[in-house]
């Protein structure tokens, strides 16, 4: 074949896990120009005299699509481990809500998002869907870091950080969208209604209308706890899913987060409306919320992607660890070791996650024409030796710290374990200082 | 206080997590001489003019007891990821048993154990209880690496690697004990009967008698699957636990591994006899064996420790990851976020695990007089920032790769991320070469 001999970046000497039709390419090569993948294939098929501005030697490791985290509250890194092992309501009411009321500011979300992005980049995440308040801080952090993001402004029917008057909640979201839509190819602003029990029907519908008008996604925590289901049943006589369906909110641009306590009819409603799902198993386990019927949802053809949730309920943002837990949790709860095989789990963190976010035309797999979001994983380590199957090694043995290079939109943002866009040391020092104030403020020893 | 000013090793500038009465010491100091801990306490309480052969600066990180893995099959690192996502019997009969029959040799167990020990050391494990065939290889690897180990020779009633005549199974175990007992303070040889369904009652009793005579531990996989319980019920009309009790095998020197499918009466029998338990949640999840009633067993006062199981069913030996999964799995399956709080989970991988192995007089906590088995964890990393509670950071955010120094019996075996006793590169290359032959032999593409 013929290849133009002028590229920005060449990644070579690794096993390319494309998550596309090409499957796994044992000794592969990826060529990047202007932020896009212009060629991917076996090294043997490429022109011998390639000429790239820079070449990354994958040293026999894995080259794969950047991981896509479909649900996170990035600023909550500042609350990582603030309170664990508590009953859900005590956790929320004694720790998280007071901490949020007192300490969430535009500066805090910017700082916490930078810390989250450092952690995400260092563990191979190249795109994240976020939902929080003062979401401008998350956008700014993402732009500064050069990470792809879908930051969604939070909407609730009570005073929230940055939205002292709840009557303005949807307006604030609208202003957020106006401010950031079209500003960068990397940032896709969206809307995040916290839940059916913190937003009334009018708010839900107005927020969804806004998302529709602005052609963006609408996220909502949905059927996360048994209490939520009871509440909706008592107030409206229907399940949370059916409630949103009746309100006209379920469609292909709505992403339901968690979907744990749902029945067959709910799954059918999600399938019929094309609603997508973000599943965050570690958070659901740690908070004892329950186990989402992921295998059943996938069997009904739902678009479903993996997420970590925020650091107050996980407590990390490591998608490789989350993949491992996702597979194991559903094997044991289904009583069937064949469910969620490794390759499928990798897809839930890459191409399927891209489908959930409606970005699969540009990211999620290594294919010609897609944006160059990819990671290089070091495998020359005891815990990754030997490799019989790359998917198995990724899901059941690799961890975030094996990520060696991260490229987003063609730019190397993590280079041989070093950050190139953010000052990690400064961010960590600032968060540690803030955490001292938070701990003192909440009387945490 | 007065301290003799002559130490082999001083570890300073870190938070000491003692897992003893002293609790957590924010700015602590550990002094080591002749392989023992001779002092641990606040740095401010120590003599200002300390004089040690070497000082390790923990750089603000955590200093804690080395982790203790109560159940592993070290040589099976050679089969890591050989076959996943399979029904249990197909996994065993089409992959693991044929691989073991053809490829388990004294050279293979030595090589596989070296790889396992590299992985364990690099993720903070300083003691492991092993069970396999050709167990001499594991002992040799442990001695070479300088890791503390309880290697148990496998016993089954069919021809096994190194034991072609099953009539000699207990004799081979006896010879193993004779060969290695008393050879090194680091190695505690033991006996491992595979299970109640692979060993007849006579074998079980003779193996237990051997262990009793030699004053060592007896390990056995117990109540791991529903099939095992049905089999025992059909053959003997009792549960696996009751069966062993009737055979006189349950006592304080027996460690039952897994204990998943058990009832209240079984737990009472385990408690009454003082039998200890090794629980390996990730393996139980991946093989869909089930969820052990760990919370109930702990409530009955059983000695219970954490283990990883072998690499064919996990697929890693990372105890920090296993701690995270242990906590989360039981929270969600009990429907209660307060069970297995972080501090307790750390104890299951340190002092409680030492109790399971009967080694709590010498390891499992940082106390004066105990052997110096400890690790230093780097916390100056995005995913470990901030730290509100050290136990929470350890269980819910740290991972094996955060371990920076490992000291066993006073010897630094992992020094600023570098192995000092084994040649990791050579071991990995040898295992990769062997895996090529195993894959080809089993027709694995």
Overview of the structural elements:
2 copies of one chain form a homodimer. Chain A is built from 15 helices and 17 strands. Chain A is α/β, with parallel strands linked by helices and 445 residues long. Chain A folds into 2 domains: 7-65 and 370-419, Urease, subunit C, domain 1 (Roll); 67-356, TIM Barrel, CATH 3.20.20. In chain A, the strands form 2 sheets. In chain A, strands 1, 2, 3, 4, 5, 14, 15, 16 and 17 form a 9-stranded mixed sheet that branches. In chain A, strand 1 (7-17) and strand 2 form a beta hairpin. The first copy, chain A, is globular, with a radius of gyration of 21 Å. The interface between A and B is large, with 73 and 73 residues.
> Can you identify the CATH class of the largest domain in chain A?
Alpha Beta
Oligomer: homodimer
- What is the count of distinct domains of chain A? 2
Largest interface: A-B, 73 and 73 residues
Shape of chain A: globular
- Count up the helices of chain A: 15
The CATH homologous superfamily of the largest domain in chain A is called Metal-dependent hydrolases
Whole-number mean pLDDT of chain A: 96
| Fold-level CATH name of the largest domain in chain A | TIM Barrel
- Unreliable runs of chain A: none
Terminal Cα separation of chain A, in Å?
65 Å
Given helix and strand content, the structural type of chain A is alpha/beta
Q: What does the radius of gyration of chain A come to? A: 21 Å
Tell me the total number of β-strands of chain A: 17
The proportion of residues in beta strands of chain A is 15-25%
| Helix percentage of chain A | 25-40%
Characterize the largest beta sheet of chain A: strand count, sense, and whether it forms a barrel.
9 strands, mixed
CATH architecture annotation of the largest domain in chain A:
Alpha-Beta Barrel
């Amino acid at each position: 074949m013929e290849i133009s001999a002028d590229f920005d970046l060449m990644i070579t000497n690794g096993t390319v896990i494309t998550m596309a039709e090409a499957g796994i390419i044992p000794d592969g090569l990826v060529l990047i120009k202007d932020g896009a993948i212009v060629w991917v294939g076996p090294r043997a098929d490429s022109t011998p005299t390639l000429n790239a501005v820079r070449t990354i030697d994958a040293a026999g490791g894995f080259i794969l699509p950047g991981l896509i985290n479909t649900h996170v509250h990035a600023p909550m890194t500042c609350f990582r481990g603030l309170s664990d092992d508590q009953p859900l309501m005590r956790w929320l009411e004694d720790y998280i809500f007071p901490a949020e009321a007192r300490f969430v500011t535009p500066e805090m979300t910017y700082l916490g998002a930078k810390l989250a992005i450092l952690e995400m980049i260092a563990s191979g995440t190249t795109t994240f869907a976020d939902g929080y308040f003062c979401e401008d801080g998350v956008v700014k952090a993402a732009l500064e870091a050069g990470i792809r993001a879908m930051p969604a402004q939070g909407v609730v029917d009570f005073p929230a950080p940055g939205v002292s008057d709840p009557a303005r909640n949807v307006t604030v979201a609208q202003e957020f969208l106006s401010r950031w839509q079209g500003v960068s190819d990397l940032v896709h602003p969206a809307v995040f209604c916290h839940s059916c029990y913190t937003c009334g029907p009018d708010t839900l519908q107005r927020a969804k209308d806004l998302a529709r008008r602005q052609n963006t996604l609408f996220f909502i925590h949905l059927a996360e706890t048994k209490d939520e289901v009871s509440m909706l049943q008592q107030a409206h006589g229907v399940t949370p899913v059916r409630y949103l369906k009746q309100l006209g909110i379920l469609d292909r641009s709505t992403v339901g987060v968690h979907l744990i306590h749902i029945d067959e009819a709910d799954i059918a409603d999600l399938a019929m409306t094309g609603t997508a799902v973000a599943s965050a198993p570690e958070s659901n386990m740690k908070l004892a919320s329950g186990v989402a019927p992921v295998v059943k949802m996938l069997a009904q053809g739902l678009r479903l992607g993996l997420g970590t949730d925020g650091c107050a309920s996980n407590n990390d943002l490591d998608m490789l660890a989350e993949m491992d837990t996702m597979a194991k949790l559903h094997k044991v709860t289904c009583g069937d070791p064949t469910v969620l095989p490794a390759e499928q789990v990798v897809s839930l963190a890459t191409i399927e996650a891209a489908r959930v976010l409606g970005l699969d035309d540009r990211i999620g797999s290594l294919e010609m024409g897609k944006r160059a979001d990819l990671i290089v994983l070091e495998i020359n380590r005891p815990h990754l030796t030997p490799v019989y199957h790359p998917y198995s090694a990724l899901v059941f043995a690799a961890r975030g710290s094996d990520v060696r290079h991260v490229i987003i939109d063609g730019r190397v943002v993590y280079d041989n374990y070093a950050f190139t866009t953010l000052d990690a040391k400064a961010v960590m020092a600032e968060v540690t200082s803030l955490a001292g104030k938070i701990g003192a403020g909440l009387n945490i020893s």
